[in-house]
Amino acid sequence: MNARRNLMLVLLAAAAVAGCATEATRLDAQWVNPQFAGQRAVRSLMVMGVSRDASTRRLYEDRMVASLGAAGVRAVQAYLTLPDDGPIPEDRLQRAVRAADVSHVIVSRIINVTQQVNVTPGTVTTTAWGPGPGWGPGSPWGPGWRGFHGHHSSMWGPTMISTPPRITTTQDVNADTRLFDSLNAEVLWAASTTTSLGTTSATVPQIIDQFVGLIVATLKRDGVI
Fold first, then answer.
1. Which residues are 174's β-sheet partners?
2. Segment 1-16, tens digit of pLDDT
3. Is the pLDDT of residue 123 over 70?
4. Strands 74-77 and 104-120
5. Beta partners for 177?
6. Residue 199: its pLDDT value, please?
7. Ordered structural domains, the chain, with CATH
8. Coil/strand/helix, residue 173
9. What is the rounded distance in angstroms from the CA atom of residue 19 to the CA atom of residue 27?
10. Helix (H, G, I), strand (E, B) or coil at 37
11. Is the separation of the CB atoms in 108 and 215 below 8 Å?
12. Helices marked H in the chain — which ranges?
């Protein structure tokens, strides 16, 4: 029974480590407006993602709205009233926020993408079947046979096994998320994050879910929601 219990503890620990290893997004910094900190919790939000990829934007807004809803915050996707991608005139943005009847707007946007190429050098390994390249100290077949003897005996001599260099590419996506007051557009909360692509096998929806989970957890910890 103890052995089985110990095995379960090891498996749970390994699963926890593996779960941490697959997280692609990390929080670099966050800030809360001192005049807003601890005053009140946000109860209604418009969620806006700024991305050149329309599918990514909509997926982010859907996931964020669902996560905020689970936290007790009424949230609405910006694409419902602002479906077009690209720059939005200020007056149109103000009308969309008023129509959504929300007190705050949270905006996430990509600010920088860097790419790093990592090269792992190749290796050469020598293996051998015996103490030397041939069958003895000399060629027993005479001078004329040395070429054939060496060619034949090389099968039992040292063998070179090479591994080619390995090249991996990692992209770091830096994002900025800010919470605005819908009345005066004042920034009340902000966070900067880095998402590393190429170091995880997670899919795009999984990466977005992890990003959203990190942002919502930070909002809770800071007393914003």
1. 112, 194
2. 444 444 333 333 333 3
3. yes
4. unpaired
5. 108, 191
6. 63
7. 22-119+171-221 (3.40.50), 122-135+144-163 (no CATH)
8. strand
9. 17
10. coil
11. yes
12. 2-21, 54-70, 90-100, 146-153, 204-221
Among 106, 110, 121, which residue's Cα sits nearest to residue 197?
A: 110
Q: What confidence category does residue 127 fall into, taking pLDDT thresholds of 50, 70 and 90?
A: low
Q: pTM of the entire structure?
A: 0.69
77 within 8 A of 17, measured Cβ to Cβ: no
Q: What is the 3-state secondary structure (H, E, C) of 60-99?
A: HHHHHHHHHHHCCCEEEEHHHCCCCCCCCCHHHHHHHHHH
d(CA 70, CA 196): 27
Separation between Cα atoms, residue 38 and residue 20, nearest integer Å:
30
Cβ contacts of residue 170 below 8 Å, gap of 6+? 115, 116, 118, 196, 197, 198, 199
Quick count: other Cβ atoms within 10 Å of Cβ 103?
A: 15
For residues 51 and 30, give the distance between their C-alpha atoms in angstroms, rounded to a whole number.
Answer: 21
Rg (the chain; Cα; Å): 30
Distance CA 222, CA 225 (A): 8
